[in-house]
Each structure stands twice: as structure tokens, then as C-alpha cells.
Amino acid sequence: MEDGYQNKTAFIKGAKDIAKEVKRQAAKKVGRGVDKMTDEYSKRSYARFEENDDDDYPVVPGGQDGGYYRGDSQAANDEEGGHSDSTEGHDEDDEIYEGEYQGIPRADSSKAADGLAGGDGQQFRDMAQFEGERRKDQEELAQQYETILQECGHGKFQWTLYFVLGLALMADGVEIFVVGFVLPSAEKDMCLSEESKGMLGKCLIVYLGMMVGAFVWGGLADRIGRRQSLLICLSINSVFSFFSSFVQGYSTFLLCRLLSGVGIGGSIPIVFSYYSEFLAQEKRGEHLSWLCMFWMIGGIYASAMAWAIIPHYGWSFQMGSAYQFHSWRVFVLVCAFPSVAAIASLTTMPESPRFFLENGKHDEGWMILKQVHDTNMRAKGHPEKVFSVTTIKTVKQMDELVDMGGDISTLRRYKLKLTSLFHQVRSNFLAIFNPEYRRTTFMMMAVWFTMSFSYYGLTVWFPDMIKYIQKQEYASRTKFFTKERVEHVTFNFTLENQVHRQGQYFNDKFINLKMKSMVFEDSVFEECYFEDITSSRSFFRNCTFIATLFYNTDLFQNRIINSKLVNSTFLHNKEGCLLDFTDDNNAYMIYFVSFLGTLAVLPGNIVSALLMDKIGRLRMLAGSSVISCVSCFFLSFGSTESGMIALLCLFGGITPSCTVNKGVFYALAAVLGISIFQSFVGITKAVPILFAAGALAAGSFLALKLPETRGQVLQ
């Protein structure tokens, strides 16, 4: 009896299970029908998300269930007992309470699955057809994604991300200035040769690293994600910036700055791509311009820190003669703070949903867009607003065609993954040279080159010209003494900017003093005593020393030239490379000038952000280039220090929109501009002025030929 009852129960349960499976398969077939409707999505316009709309949701025209948005018809269908994959596992008698997690809405991938299962992917053997389908998917995703961003709104989430990415861009701005600021101190501390100083001073090594970084990380961001790539970039920059503040050797320091540049070079293309994928089209131009302001803030931060730290040589310690940690190393360490702060902040932010959708990860992209929507709605006082998007278009993936099998070795699997990664980076790079983009690509490269060539060339030329004017003025104050005779005199004060020729010094003492730019030529020192002497740019040429004692001085090496030493002794000579302290006052001025130059850029950047979407990107770019071109000719009137500072502020204030976009090509232009412009310092102003004006004029002309992107969907 009990067996019969159990058989009957099992039969009934089996029948119910069969009925559930039939319903589930029927729902999937309906889902396939809905997927066919997605091609018409780009032709439909979604109702704009209204702030005062509390309970109404747009209904997809012509659809009874499924669709992209949750509507009343779908709720009715749910009441009739319809099942979906997200609620599978609940019996008809099970209750689903309000607020219970019911699964993430999933994209319907049945077409791709059927195609791969039946026929080993024959429909994708024609790669041209596959690429065409991918492009169609991308276009549909672009249209739908723009509409979804409209519903998510612009608010707390975007502003939080703005400040986080601003720190990353600030770290890039700091990196540009670091090497140039530490050079005057580092070249003495590390005993750099003239060739090495030129390499480091022109920041060539930094720009080389940034070129490599922009190319590598810009491509990898399309594969491993914008957030992940940016975290790696900033981590590399932070680590090697930290190391560069402690290393003692020039080669090691150069390597650290190179790798630091590789890290920070990838941040620029990633930051702008990352942020733009959270911005609706009417907000994109303005807020990307606001984001550029952090690059200027990075320059201001670097200038202010250099002004406050580097001239204070007392902020240092020394362990013997081998290890020295001077104030410029403290400055390098402080300049790593923005990058570290950016890393800490970025860990709290999500990946770009557009990246997930482009790579076929529907659920991850949907969840992030819902997070954006909910964050903004709660901040605006509408927490009851519900994210109505249920399904988002995803792009077919190339990896779906590769079946590695279960018996493949781990090494082989990783090799195939790396090969696939390399090919994707390569294909992404070559895509900009496709026939449809080739003309625009070359024109953009030319525009970036002309703008960067002029801007970076002149921004380095200005401080160098100010240094040259300062040196000329300093040289004009040099005091000359000829055939003087000094006996039994004790010198215990600083000697500076003097030239002594054919002098005679008998039984004189030079004790505990500094010599700055002191030159003794054809002079005789007899029974003199030198103790605790620190010199900078001071030399004894063709002199004779008779019965003279040198104790704890740095005069032995490279200071006494073509001179005779008769019964003279050197004891406890100072070792190591000493800092050049002849430009203490000038150092303050140069850092202050750089501070003013970067500060002057901010007003122009604010104006460009406010006008970007009103007059258009191209008019803004071309207009500021023309004004900058005209201002170049005023540089010929800068013959004094104050005049050059005023012209620097003028030029910086009207050129911010020329430097908004950056890439691999801008670094090459910057290297050439800096190298060429510096070579004419102290020779002529005409060549740098003509080069800068000509490049800006060409850039403004080419900018007007570019396609306008205002009001267009982000493809």
C-alpha cells in the first residue's frame, strides 16, 4: 500500500517537474523572439528619466514581455505565473518577498550558443561577416548606452569619480616637472657629466617612458579594464618614484625615472576614456575640460613643493660619504603622494560598465550602471526611483570562437591567452588607421604634434631664458681686483662673485667660509692656511702655493688648475659631490616663476570648460591656437626678468585648450620642442618665436578640418 502511494507521489512530482521544464523552455523561446527585436532598438527612443516621476516606468512599444525596460505588461505576465531563469527554482507555492534577491537580468545569448553548438561555429568562419556583426553590435550598444546614461543622471557618482581621477591626472602633471626641478641639485649630488645633465634636464627620459606607457597601457585597458590598468600604472609610478628618491647612482636614478614615466604615461589615455564612459553626451565636453584642470593643479603642487623644499639644504642627512639624502630627494618623495592618494581612492570605484558590455559581460555592466543610478538618485532625494533597464546589448567576442579543450596544458593555455592579448592590442592600434579613420587619425596626430611642440617647447624655454637673464645680470655685478697685496689677514666670511688677478697673499688665513663664483688667476699664496672651505664655481688658475696648508676643504679636485704646489699639504679633503649653492636665490625665483606660470593656466582652463559645449570643440581649439600664435610675437619684447614672467603668464593663460588631449605622439613632439628651443637660449629669440607661431598656426588650420564631436554618441 505504501509502495503504491510512494509511486503515485513520485509520478505526480515527476509530472510537475516535466511541466516546469516545458514552461522554462517556452520562456526561452520567447526570449529568443525578444532578442530579434533588439535590432530595432536604435530606432526607438526611450522616455527621459524625469526627476518628479515616482512610480511610472516606460513601456516598450509593441512588447508584451521581456524587453529592455520593466513595464506593466511584464508585471502582468509575472502575475500569470511566467518563469524566467532568474526565478528558476521557485515552486508555484513559493513566496517571493519584496526586496528578495531574484537574480541579475541576463542578456539573451541563445543565438551565439546555438550557432556554436550546431556546426562548430560555421556562421563565424567568415571573419569579415563576424567583424560586421561586431560593429553592428557596437553601434547598437552605443545608442542604448547613451540612453541608459540619461536615465542614470549626472550627480554624486560622477563628481566622486571626477576627484578620484583628478588625483591620477594630477600625478601626471607632477611627473612632468619633477626632473626639471631636481636637476640643479641632482647634477651636483650625483656628479653628472654635461651629457648626462642634458639628458636628464630636458626630461627626455621621462617623455620616453611616457611614450612607451601610453602605447602599452592604452591598448591593455581595452583588454583588462580601465580601472585595473590605471591601478597598475599608478602603482608602477608610485613604486619607482619612491625608489628614485633613495638611489645614489645616476644610472639607477635614470632607470627609476624611466619606469616611473612608463607607469604615469598610461594614465592620461585611460583617465579620459574611463571618465567619458560615465558621462552623457551633453556633459562630456565640459566635464572632461574640468578634469584637465587637475593636470594644472599637479604643476602648481610640484612648483610649490619645489619652492618650499629644495632650497632648504638643511633638510638632509648623510651617512658617511657614500649615502646622502638631500632636500631634493625629499621633494621627489613628496611628489609621489598624489599617485599614492589616487591608488587608495580608485580602489573604491567600479570598473567602466562600457568596458564590461564591450567584452560581453552583461551582468557586471548592468550592476555598475544600477549602482550609478541608485547613487545619484539617493543623493538627489529620490531613493524610490528604480533602475528600469533589464537587458543591455553586448558585443560578440572573438574568444567565443576559440575552444582550447580540457586536455590542454596550463603553459599552452597562458601562451594562447598572451597571444590573444597581443593581437587585440595590435588590432586596436591598427584600427585607427583603417580607411574610415585614417584621415582623421593623421590630422589629429598633426594637431597634437603642433600644439605639444609649441606649448612644451616654450614652457621650458621661458625658465631657461629667465635663468640666462639672471646670469647675465649676476655677471654684470662681478668685482675685479688686480695686483693686490694682502698680508696677515683672516677671511672668515663668504667670498662671492669676484675675480682676483696677479695678487700676492702672505700669511693669510681662510677659515670656515664659502666661496661662490670666486676666481684667482696668476696669484701667489705663501704660508697661507685654508680650513673648512666649501666652494662652488670657484677656481685657482695658474697660481703658486708655497708652504700652504689645506685642511678639510674641497679645493683639491677640480678647483686648482695648472698651478704649482711647493711644500704644500692637503689634509682630510672633503669627499663626495657637493651641491651647487651659488643659485640659492635664483632657485627660489625659478620655482616661483613655474608656480605663477601653471597658476596662470587655471583661468583659461575654466573659460574653456564653460565654453566647450557652447561654441564647439573645434572652434575652441582653433581659436585658442590663433590667440596663442599672435601672443608669440610679443615674446620678442621680453628683455627683462619681470617682462618674461608676464609673457609666460600671458602665454599660459590662453593656451589650455590646446593641451587638453594627449597621447603617444604628444610626448615625441614635447621632446623635440624642448630640445630645439633650449638650443637657442642666449643666442636668439627669433627662431623659437617663429617655430612656435608657425606650429600653432598650422595646428589651428588643421583643427578646423577635423570632424566635430559635440552632441554625438560616444562610439
What does this structure look like?
With 715 residues, this protein is α/β, with parallel strands linked by helices. It contains 23 helices and 16 strands. It has helices at residues 2-36, 72-79, 110-117, 127-152, 156-189, 194-201, 204-224, 226-244, 250-265, 267-276, 281-309, 327-334, 337-346, 353-358, 362-379, 410-431, 435-476, 584-599, 601-615, 617-632, 641-653, 664-678, 686-703; strands at residues 317-319, 323-325, 479-482, 485-487, 490-491, 495-501, 504-506, 509-521, 524-526, 529-536, 539-541, 544-546, 549-553, 560-561, 564-566, 569-571. Strands 3, 5, 6, 8, 10, 11, 13, 14 and 16 form a 9-stranded parallel β-sheet that branches. A hairpin with a 3-residue loop joins strand 1 (317-319) and strand 2.
Q: Return the structural class.
A: alpha/beta
Q: What's the N-to-C terminus distance?
A: 70 Å
Assembly type of the chains comes to single chain
* Main beta sheet strand tally, sense and closure: 9 strands, parallel
Strand content: 5-15%
Which spans have pLDDT < 50 for at least 5 consecutive residues? 29-103, 107-124
Per DSSP E runs of 2 or more residues, the count of β-strands stands at: 16
Whole-angstrom Rg: 35 Å
Keywords: Cell projection, Cytoplasmic vesicle, Glycoprotein, Membrane, Neurotransmitter transport, Phosphoprotein, Synapse, Transmembrane, Transmembrane helix, Transport
Biased composition (Basic and acidic residues): 32-50, 80-89
Function: Plays a role in the control of regulated secretion in neural and endocrine cells, enhancing selectively low-frequency neurotransmission. Positively regulates vesicle fusion by maintaining the readily releasable pool of secretory vesicles.
Subunit structure: Interacts with SYT1/synaptotagmin-1 in a calcium-dependent manner. Binds the adapter protein complex AP-2.
